[in-house]
Amino acid sequence: MKAEQFLYSNHEGFLTEAVIGGRPLSDLIREIQHIYKADKRPWVVGFSGGKDSTVILSLTYAALKLLPAEERHKHVFVVSSDTRVETPVVVDMIRNALDSVNVQAPIDSIPMSAHSVVPKTEETFWANLLGKGYPAPTKSFRWCTERMKIDPVSEFIKDKVAKFGEVVVVLGSRRQESSTRSQVISRHKIDGSALGRHSSLPNAYTYMPIELWSADEVWEYLMSAPRPWGGSNRVLFDLYKGSNAGECPLVIDTNTPSCGNSRFGCWTCTVVTHDKAIEGLVSTGEEWMRPLLEFRNQLHHSSLPENKTDYRNYKRRTGKVTFARGDINNDESVATKHIPGPYWMKYRQSWLKELLQLEKTIREGGRDIELIGRDELQAIRQQWLKDPNEPDWVDSLPRIFSEVYPDEQIDWVKNDAGAFTQPDAELLTELERTKGVPAALVMRLIDSELSFSGLSRRKGILDDLQRVLEQDWGELEEALSRHAEPHLRGSYRHAADAIRSEVEGLLQ
Q1: What angle do CA 202, 206, 210 make, to 5 degrees?
Q2: Per-domain residue ranges of the chain
Q3: Are strands 76-81 and 112-117 parallel, antiparallel or unpaired?
Q4: Which pick of 68, 98, 203, 251 has the fewest CB atoms within 10 Å?
Q5: For residues 79 and 327, which has the higher predicted lDDT (pLDDT)?
Q6: Using an 8 Å Cβ cutoff, are 362 and 288 in contact?
């Protein structure tokens, strides 16, 4: 952006002259500098890429830049949480900002470094939804936030606490965002101090320099001058204008509201009925994102109450049929509601192929994008091979990948297909047809036996076999009958008792 398009040609002049919220910015800068110099606790600046966190990063950078070099005595860590399913255009903007800070900070002799944290591979969105079959997140089952946002940032902060004893977490939280946010800020504020106690991390304190600012004042700051590390916030402004949305804040505890309110966040978010942020981007020219929106809508469709039983197994991952009962304190009460389990394997396989095809199409359109990591594919494959209800005996994931990317080779983990192959599956399926014994039950019993093979002491194998036999096998109707009629409920348990008695007899 050309200099004349700003009200102020440089950030330092802006800070010297401007007044925001009835307070001179120079006064706020002095406060930030005073708190920074007061002790040796390093700072962790939370950066989500949105308007509020961009202000915080800018103010912190500017405050340090205006300090004499000898007073910049401790490091500032900028941390951004990348869930790996962030809205693509937001990901690009965040990466550019982090890269710019890491390039310019050493030039300006500022002790600041920017870091992006990601969830563990086995805790990503796709590893859970496609791998384990977790249902798409809803308001009542929002399993994604803690795994994908809270835990990575918390681990980063705890690492600094372990190294330095205490840290100060600098956030862009504002009271005007919501009544909930205002209450959380007030609840943890330390009397007589600008700092607050972190709600869940010991030895971590919070500092919120713009907690009293309005949204208009945030934009006034962002658009009045160049960023202190160079460049402008025009891309950020255009992104908000195009989507008519806000950013998903850096989440550091469970008190932070969900991103399910049309804020920028994960493009896969199904907590809301309509993703107005992506819809806005598509309507303002980002047409290439329409297939992502349609894929997201498909996941949301699967989460609707009337569709759950179509998409999801009737058994939970524990292997048992679960009910919501009329009296939670009485297991013998009449079942009132059947709770479905993970997604059926066929839907997970279909969605994975569609996701890979989406990624390939977007790449062929000239965009460097990764919708699902190759490490995630490895994790999903392991989950499929060991699925408690529908083990992927044919090891279908490598085939699915090669159908979409025939020229890309992945070094799949060898010798991890377990004890069963396609011929085994066909044999067990035939036995199920002729003998009436569920193939999956036989597989689990053999798998349990193999897990104890080679051990000098096989203590616990009978308990393990009993746990397998006590699961709900057969079709849903059979399981419902057993639960409805107490005398049928223990049929597999009786088989386990018989096995135990026979083994104990042999050992006498």
Answers
A1: 170
A2: 3-265, 422-507
A3: parallel
A4: 68
A5: 79
A6: yes
Phi, psi (degrees; rounded to nearest 5) at 500: -60, -45
- Residue 126, judged by CB atoms within 10 A of its CB (0-12, 13-18, 19+), counts as buried
Nearest to 129 by CA among 268, 329, 297: 268
Give pLDDT tens digits for 69-114: 999 999 999 999 999 999 998 899 999 999 999 999 999 999 999 9
In sequence order, the 6+-apart residues with CB closer than 8 A to the CB of 458 are 452
pLDDT digits (tens, 9 = 90+) for 124-156: 999 999 999 999 999 988 999 899 998 999 999
359-388: b (≥16 Cβ within 10 Å) or e: beebeeeeeeeebbeeebbbbbbbbbbebb
Give the burial class of 324: count Cβ atoms within 10 A of its Cβ; 0-12 exposed, 13-18 middle, 19 or more buried.
Answer: exposed
In CATH terms, the superfamily for domain 3-265 is HUPs (3.40.50.620)
Strand partners, 196: 189, 206
Taken in order 361, 362, 365, 369, the sign of the CA dihedral is negative
pLDDT band at residue 369 under the 50/70/90 scheme = very high
Contacts with 332 (C-beta within 8 Å, 6 or more apart), sequence order? none
Residues 6+ apart with CB under 8 A from 70: none
For residue 478, give every residue at least 6 positions away whose Cβ sits within 8 Å of its Cβ, in sequence order, or none.
Answer: none
Residue 84 CB partners (closer than 8 Å, separation 6+)? 118, 119, 124, 125, 126, 148, 373, 376
* Residues sharing a CB contact under 8 Å with residue 283, sequence separation 6 or more, in sequence order: none
Tell me the C-alpha distance between 419 and 404, whole Å. Answer: 28
Q: Are 148 and 83 in contact (CB under 8 A)?
A: yes
CA 82 – CA 79 distance, rounded (Å): 10
Of the candidates 481, 463, 479, the residue with the CA atom closest to the CA atom of residue 471:
479
Please give the C-alpha separations between residue 403 and each of 247, 291, 353, 356, 408, in angstroms, as whole numbers.
37, 20, 9, 10, 10
